[in-house]
What does this fold into?
Amino acid sequence: MTRHLHTRTTRSRVIGAVTAGLLCAAGLAAPAVAAPAPTPALDDGLALTPPMGFNNWNSTHCRAEFNEGMVKSVADIFVDKGLKDAGYQYVNLDDCWALPARDADGKLVPDPARFPNGIKAVADYVHAKGLKFGIYTSAGTKTCDSAGFPGALGHEYSDARQFADWGVDYLKYDNCNNQGVDAKLRYTTMRDALKATGRPIVYSICEWGQNKPWEWASDVGHLWRTTGDISDSWGSMLSILKQNLPLAPYAGPGHWNDPDMLEVGNGGMTDTEYRSHFSMWSIMAAPLLIGSDLRTATAGTFEILGNKEVVAVDQDPLGEQGTVVSSEGGRWVVAKEMADGSRTVALFNESGTAQRIATTVTAVGLPAADAYTQRDLWQHRSYNTAGTIAATVPAHGTVLVRVSPDPAWAQHPPAVELGLDGSPFVEAGTPATLTSVVTDLGRTPAGRVSVALTGPEGWTVRATSPTTASSLSTGRSLRTGWTVTAPPTAPTGSYGLTLKASYRSPSHARVESVLPLTATVVAPPPAGTSRLSDLPWLSAVSGWGPVERDTSNGESAAGDGNPITIGGVVYAKGLGVHAESSVDYYTGGACETVTAQVGVDDEKGADGTVAFEIWADGSKAASTGVLTNALPAQPLTAEVTGAQVVRLVVSDGGDGIDSDHADWAEAELSC
It folds into this structure.
């Protein structure tokens, strides 16, 4: 992309700055960051757990609705909807709160149209609710919005004094229009200015990771952005997650890695994806700053944001950021040590289809024990496990559990894993064969086990082997065959299946487990050679904006691309994407080759470095290595014979996301 600096019509670089942090779309594990966690010198008792609150930018930008009434209503909602009780404290203003010019004395002037009673009145209102108040400026001559509001460069002590006098508790300090002044100098000056006020103010360094602040800012600020701005898309969230995960050694009480605000509730992702977003930010001990418009938020949004068990993971006083235990094929295991000795474990599925993800208590660092208590933090239910932690995780989903060597493990029913073997792709009118698997992972037996699989109305689902078992001991499974047939007239697309198991615990309590799954009705690929931009895809993810057919990526909106152009050559057909990207096609074992002319699109000038890969059923079939804008289109051919799914992947080339507009020109599939 080119990163939007909040707005943004103005663009600046989105630099992840850590090569290890940008993991390829195939889900390879990040290299370890071999660096000791720095000890913060800001011994002020602030931000001992990651800050939690609200920032208006992602939902309002600089629109007129950003005003005193909106800010006060957020404070009211914090109290009325239980967010304050859940731990959210800060109500923070972002850009556009001031007039474009300082007064005759060089002071900042609040916009009288937006804040007719001034900033202090708003801060007083927020404080009266038992909450805290935050504000924004930039470590430059102007802020990031194109209107050009005054920045604090050269005015640090005066502006800090104003903030303190207004009752500010939190400062977000951006990086725009910095005039090339050394970042460490700019951010250290504001640190000293804030300290000189005598008011405790949490200091958020927002320099986008350009100068690796995790290496030097632990004695400067309480948190530092590690990446460019997030956007409300799966690709953006995933890319930022991968950049932030390797930085775990640098985080701790009073000094946090900040992967940017939450997008939960803004509408660009599904609730499943938002739960993953919230789960992964929490296990990374990230600041939790709500970025959606709480005035119009759905019950589902409040349920995600208000999940106290997940919030407790983020706010654990030990202050450990979760680390990657394993990552392969889009199956991630991330574990976080907790203050009570337990481990929170995220089983995160990056891919577009359900996958089994598994680990063990040993792998996540727990000591040996007879059995363990496993608490599901989204289901709010506890089980016992003999030591295996596993689940079939829906596409883009996360199972989040907290596991401990609890002496009282036996009071909980055994954990039972549900899974479904077989291809999730169904051709209309043609029976598909699937196998359900119900496995006892607990130390105690599961009794009177039964399983059922149901599909949409009009579908035929029949069991071909027994659906019950009298008892399952540790590690034993009930496997049941099924035929699933979609109606001959079923349109292509995704449909829900539900796998449900029922069993009895040793105390005879009845337990039900439900696994929602997806079957995709697909059409056989056409015989001969087809342009991929003319074919339906199974899924398409782009790091910024949507995947475009027969144009470049353009910008953030659908349809805003230009003719595909690589090295001055224009191509009529192809796909325009932005790293990190993946586009999946159903090939049904009937195709042989994929070919394309690939490269960085000319629309971003000299910027952009990317790498292209073609995957066939989870195996890399072809790749280019790193390509730059200076190179002409490169031919890429992959042998995909027998593959059910072909995936086109673009990664960022290892240098962070910066104008990585990539083209699959003249991409063709031969079947």
In short: The chain has ten helices and 40 strands.
